[in-house]
Amino acid sequence: MAFLIKSMIGNPLSGIGLGGGGDKEEEATPSDPAKAAGMTREEYEEYQKQLVEEKMERDADFLHKKAERATLRVCLRDKYRLPKSEQDDNMIEMAGDDVDVPEELLKMVDEDATEEEGKDSLMGQIQNLQNMDMDQLKEKASATVTELKSKAEEKCSVM
Q1: Cβ of 142: how many Cβ atoms within 10 Å?
Q2: Residue 99: exposed, middle, or buried by beta-carbon count in 10 A (0-12, 13-18, 19+)?
Q3: Rounded to the nearest 10 degrees, what angle do helices 103-120 and 41-79 cross at?
Q4: pTM, to two decimals
């Protein structure tokens, strides 16, 4: 009967930490991480080596992708005559000379360049004039002329 009451109520001093709480067994955690993972020492060391190798491969791939992006940014900066970035140059140097921009991205940059050249030429400007709505242009021109006349009449009493 005393056991039943003691198990229901528990030791009132065990929660306070004043001693008397020696009934509970402390769980012993293994100091060896291999035992904690359920492996032998050799298996654990091999597992750790694999993790390090995989991380190095991921880092190398990530660096390569960053260098590809930097190369593409350099191409775009050259195309639009923007100032160069030291950060991109450093990224390309870190990756080495084996950095290749994917052909799809280069095609996109080249297509943009040909479109820009076409728009800049005289023939490109003439083609743009053909695509414009002449009625809309006439309305804008007449509205601008009438607006200028009204402003001039306000400012000048002779007219």
Answers
A1: 10
A2: buried
A3: 10
A4: 0.45
Question: Mind listing the pLDDT tens digit for each residue in 20-68?
Answer: 544 444 455 557 777 777 888 888 889 999 999 999 999 999 988 888 8
CB count within 10 Å of CB 91 equals 20
In our burial notation (b when 16+ CB lie closer than 10 A, e otherwise), range 57-85 reads eeeeeeeeebbbebbbbbbeeeeeeeeee
Residue 94 near residue 121, CB atoms below 8 Å: no
> Which tokens sit at 30?
């293994």
Tokens coding 89: 């140059």
**Alpha-carbon span 152 to 159, nearest angstrom:** 8
